[in-house]
């Protein structure tokens, strides 16, 4: 995971026969089997789809709902439909019903979602639409503490298959922002902040048109600290978290330190760095960013190269100006 953050996650819909002697066409259970390829949870990389990730799915046929907002959890080696804590089989319709459009999202967060038009009493609820409220779940790590942050994944696909694995590519709904710092002198980085940034919001997946669309509605904005400075009384270190969760230090060797945060897509904010070169006085430097946009599923790395010039004095003394005093008569 050190080389790249942007992976596509692949899940598959598989069918399991359920014998019914009174019918010719057997009803087949809908289940998911995530493939064993790298999956991302912020600051942590695994080599398989996380067992505790829940997949929330809807399916429609010709814009008519087949099922909506179903919860699929791991049961054995596949993900199956659950009603609460009880595994409840969900079956494909018998016969050929044409192509189905699938919409899914996955996160370990306790995120809330509104499917369709949000009116459960509606008989013509919109199929293929969900609004997910993604809560802020990031805190700047302390030294020696493994920071965690939950990813948000989404997928849309179409298929008429019933008997074969149906691959679904999950994409990242968030941007991954990283910072690296180095200096030509020993310097204490007290804090790196994103100014007026939003870390929460509502993510919409809209599959109602021919081309699926995704968008972010920003939540509350604030100045967000990405790093905080910790003094452990023995050496000054910059507390940061690598992708594998290890603590790094920006020490007197001026090594680069990896840092990162997952954020909804948005206009790039300004950065604010609080630092000290003497261990006593804190100074603040504001980096005015170019007003472009962070996009979903992309990794951005900003490298701060801090070059300090020493304050030196080059004293000289000017010559005395010649001036004639007034005559003194004795």
Quote the average pLDDT: 70
Gyration radius (Cα, Å) is 29 Å
Please mark out the parts with pLDDT under 50 across 5 or more consecutive residues, or reply none: 1-25, 35-47, 228-258
Give the H and E element order. Answer: EEEEEEEEEEEEEEEEEEEEEEEEEE
Strand content: over 45%
Coarse structural class? mainly beta
Secondary structure: helix percent:
under 10%
Number of domains: 1
Counting DSSP E segments of at least 2 residues, the number of strands comes to 26
Tell me the strand order in the biggest sheet.
1-2-7-6-5-9-12-13
- The separation of the N and C termini measures 96 Å
Describe the largest sheet: 8 strands, antiparallel, barrel
| Rough outline | rod-shaped
Could you characterize what this model shows?
- With 330 residues, the chain is mainly beta.
- The protein has one domain (9-306).
- 0% of the residues lie in helices and 48% in strands.
- The chain contains no helices and 26 strands.
- It has strands at residues 9-18, 27-32, 39-41, 44-46, 54-61, 64-75, 78-83, 86-87, 100-107, 112-115, 129-134, 153-159, 166-172, 175-183, 188-197, 201-206, 213-218, 222-231, 236-241, 247-248, 259-263, 266-267, 271-276, 283-287, 293-294, 299-306.
- It has an eight-stranded antiparallel beta barrel. A six-stranded antiparallel sheet has the order 20-19-18-15-23-24, with no helix packed on it. Strands 10-11-16-17 form a four-stranded antiparallel sheet, with no helix packed on it.
- A hairpin with a 2-residue loop joins strand 3 (39-41) and strand 4 (44-46).
